[in-house]
Amino acid sequence: MAPRYDVGIINPFLDAVVGVLGMMASVEVTPGKPYINRKRSAVGDVTGTIGISGTADGVMSLTLDEAVILKIVNNMLAENYTEINDEIADAVGELTNMIAGQARQDLVKEGMTLKASTPTVIIGKGHKISHITSSPILSIPFTTSEGSLVVEVSFDSTEPETA
Predict the structure, then answer these.
(1) What is the C-alpha end-to-end distance of the chain, expressed in Å?
(2) Inter-residue contact 88 to 103 (CB < 8 Å)
(3) What pTM does this model have?
(4) Sequence-ordered alpha helix ranges (H) in 3-85
(5) Phi, psi dihedral angles at 134 (to 5 degrees)
(6) What integer pLDDT is reported at residue 5 of this predicted model?
C-alpha cells in the first residue's frame, strides 16, 4: 500500500519536535516545508534513529548539526559541552525516543497503533544516513539560532489497519 504523507502524518512529528525541544531545552525551532527526500539520505553530525512497528512499519531519524545538539544538551543539563561525547550521544537517543513517542501518541488519533524500538545513535562530522526502504522518505527540516536539524520518517504504509 502506498504511503500517504498528509497533515495527519506530518503534524505529529512537526509538533513533537517543536514541543520536545521547547519544553526540554528551551530551544525555539522553526519548521521548514516538509518534502519527499529523493536523495534518500541525510547529512549531519549526529543522528538518532528509531524503528517503528505496528499499523505501519518504518523508521524515524533525527539528524542535527553539532552546534544545535550542543546548545540543546547544554540547555537541558545546564552544562557547557564543546564537542560531541557519550553524554551528547545519550541525549540524542533520548530526544529521538521522546520525539517519536510524542508523535506516536498523536498518530493514535489517526487510527494507527505503533510501537518503537530502542534508538540507535550515529556520530561523525558530516556523516550520511542512507535510508534502506522502498517507501518515500518524508523530510521535515527545522532551523534554530544555532543551525539546522531534520526529522525524517518513512513508513511502508500509513493506512490504518481495519479488523
Answers:
(1) 16
(2) no
(3) 0.87
(4) 7-25, 66-77
(5) -90, -10
(6) 66
